[in-house]
């Protein structure tokens, strides 16, 4: 599907910083987020991926009885257009068998484009910044952990996170450790994931 506006279709003259929000609560959610980050690192046009620490979050809306979610924010540098980045996000969801049957229902993977540089869009197929991100602690807190000085719509993310109603249901996942070179050597995952390197949690 072609982009609905020239602004969304335009590729930037220089790499643009964008923010993606990932979430999942079906299947092996850690493995799913690992796979999504790894796929982004080898996607042409994605030059850098910075993953946030992950958050364990209570469901917001949707049917009762859902499992907790695992959420993560990624800051990427890209030469893709905003529309191409949205299509990439949707392909990642499809690759993990996302089914949109119940609004805010359980999902294998949800990938949302939160901001794309300074671009604003009120098109219903891609609204930028994301219309609900400023109210969602499961987006704001991981983003804050990654970029303490980040702003959304000119407002500090830290301030937005303090006001988010769902903040009490969000807690930081303890860091996972990878054993390298045999027992006894624990090494945390990389802070920056560049093309050609597998992604990991931080």
Q: Give the number of helices.
A: 5
Q: Which homologous superfamily in CATH is the superfamily?
A: 7,8-Dihydro-6-hydroxymethylpterin-pyrophosphokinase HPPK
Low-confidence stretches: 182-190, 194-202
End-to-end distance: 35 Å
Strand content: 25-35%
Architecture, CATH level 2? 2-Layer Sandwich
Counting DSSP E segments of at least 2 residues, the number of strands comes to 12
CATH topology: Alpha-Beta Plaits
Average of pLDDT: 85
Rg for CA atoms: 16 Å
Structural class call reads alpha+beta
- CATH class category name: Alpha Beta
Task: Give the overall form.
Answer: globular
The number of distinct structural domains comes to 1
Q: How much helical structure, as a percent, in the residues?
A: 10-25%
Q: Mind sketching the topology for me?
A:
Blueprint: H1 6-9, E1 16-24, H2 29-41, E2 46-51, E3 55-57, E4 69-78, H3 82-95, E5 110-116, E6 121-123, E7 126-128, H4 137-146, E8 151-152, E9 155-156, H5 157-163, E10 170-172, E11 178-179, E12 186-187
Antiparallel strand pairs: 1-4, 1-5, 2-4, 3-4, 3-10, 6-7, 8-9, 11-12
Helix pairs in contact: 4-5
Report on the architecture of this protein.
The protein is globular and about 40 Å long. The longest helix has 14 residues, at 82-95. The strands form four sheets. Strands 1, 2, 3, 4, 5 and 10 form a six-stranded antiparallel sheet that branches. A two-stranded antiparallel sheet has the order 6-7. A two-stranded antiparallel sheet has the order 8-9. The chain has a single domain, classed as 7,8-Dihydro-6-hydroxymethylpterin-pyrophosphokinase HPPK (Alpha-Beta Plaits, 2-Layer Sandwich), CATH 3.30.70.560. The protein has helices spanning 6-9, 29-41, 82-95, 137-146, 157-163; strands at 16-24, 46-51, 55-57, 69-78, 110-116, 121-123, 126-128, 151-152, 155-156, 170-172, 178-179, 186-187. The protein has five helices and twelve strands. Strand 8 (151-152) and strand 9 form a beta hairpin. Helix 4 packs antiparallel against helix 5. With 202 residues, it is α+β, with helices and mostly antiparallel strands. Helix content is 24%, strand content 26%.
């Amino acid at each position: 599907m072609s982009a609905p506006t020239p602004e969304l279709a335009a590729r930037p003259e220089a790499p643009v910083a964008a923010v993606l929000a990932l979430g999942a609560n079906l299947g092996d959610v850690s493995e799913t987020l690992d796979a999504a980050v790894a796929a982004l690192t080898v996607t042409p046009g994605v030059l850098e991926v910075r993953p946030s620490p992950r958050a364990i979050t209570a469901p917001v809306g949707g049917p009762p009885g859902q499992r907790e979610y695992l959420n993560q924010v990624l800051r990427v540098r890209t030469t893709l257009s905003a529309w191409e980045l949205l299509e990439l996000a949707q392909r990642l969801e499809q690759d993990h068998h996302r089914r949109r049957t119940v609004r805010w229902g359980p999902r294998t993977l949800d990938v949302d484009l939160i901001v794309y540089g300074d671009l604003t869009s009120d098109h219903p197929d891609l609204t930028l910044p994301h219309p609900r991100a400023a109210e969602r602690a499961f987006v704001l807190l991981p983003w804050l952990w990654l970029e303490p000085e980040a702003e959304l719509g000119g407002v500090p993310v830290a301030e937005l996170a303090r006001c988010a109603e769902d903040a009490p249901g969000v807690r930081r996942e303890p860091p996972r450790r990878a054993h390298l070179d045999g027992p006894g050597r624990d090494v945390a995952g990389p802070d920056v994931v560049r093309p050609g390197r597998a992604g990991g949690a931080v």
